[in-house]
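Morning. Coffee machine broken again, so started the prediction first thing and wrote up yesterday's gels while waiting. Chain of 424 residues, entered below exactly as on the submission form.
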Amino acid sequence: MSRKAEDINRLTENTYKTVMEQFNPGLRNLVNLGKNYEKAVSAMVAASKIYFDAISKLGDLSSQSPVSRELGQVLVEISEVHKKLNLEMEDNFRKFHKEIINELEKKTDQDVKYMNATLKKYQTEHRTKLDSLEKSQAELKKLRRKSQGTKNAYKYENKEMEFLATISTRENDIQRFINEGCKEALLEEKRRFCFLADKHCNFSQDLSNYHEKANGLLRAKIVTWQEKCLDATKVPDFLNEDESSFPSYLPKTPQPSPMIGRYPVHDAAIQNSLKIPPAPPGRIQKSPLPDMFNNPNAHRMAPIERNTDSTEDGSLSRSISVATGLNMVQRPKVKSIFPHTAGNNKTMLSFAEGDILTLLIPEEKDGWLYGENDSNKMRGWFPTSYTRPLQQDPDVSPALSSCTECQHPESCREVKCCPATSRL
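Came back before lunch.
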């Protein structure tokens, strides 16, 4: 056998060994890596689903706000698009598992047996043909030794020619066999790499289609989504309009309190600022009771007319009666119907719904009242429309009015101090 035939034979055997010792083990490793790849993608898709479910819930929450309604719709749409893309990704990897991982796993086991059998068959046939050629060459040598030194050498010439023809035929046959065996081995190798490349080309095409679809879906939406996020300071137009144009889902502004107009605003200091105005100038009052809401000590400053004709005991009795009447006077109270938060404004009063507030200044300033929260004794201004007058217990005596003739409280009737009571 020629040197060229030996080289080709060596290439053929090395090709089979490469497939069995490197390619097939590489495929087994590739199958394991592919399974890990699938698990990673499945975990990513599951995490993505949880993430965009949370985005959707926040979008639903935002949709309930009159200001953020459009942004809530944007978040819900983003969630839906990404969920759809996740489903596409899952479909691609189901196909990846079916057409690549399963096929590689199945073909690798089969290929080991096939390649071993093919190499063994090639080596057996090659050995057989080579043995036949070597046998013919050995017989030719033996024939030539017999023909040497004999007188009838021409008798061996025909046999020698037959052996030479047989050897040439067998040499050509083995050369052709080696060439075809090498070609088949190289094609077997190429078919395997081609199978691997073709499967992954199809997978790459699926991923390309997936990304094109994702690109189309996202590009069609992103511009619209971003337009709704450009101005974070924009508020709905209805906030600048009357309550009659408010959407039905919004709570209406509380109606003006029925106390508006009950306490007329007359103090300039209250009209110009939210600070507590000073006590009114000391002027003579017919009765200390009207000033009790402004100045708790008014009864001490306001002179009380005494009946000089009364006895000392009668004066004492009348003073006790007046003091009793003063102690019975209570400041007006209101009850909150809405919670109010002062925030960082120290002049404002915070309270919860249902809190009882005592009015320290009965005059109302542009819808504001000044009072004290009975629950925590904090003082400050609060909106009148957030409160309603507190219904007094009928057992508790209301603020007393003055007697028209003696200018004493009605309780003075108990002490018989004026013409009005004397006529009773």
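Residues 185 and 363 are 107 Å apart (CA to CA). Going to sketch it on the whiteboard this afternoon.
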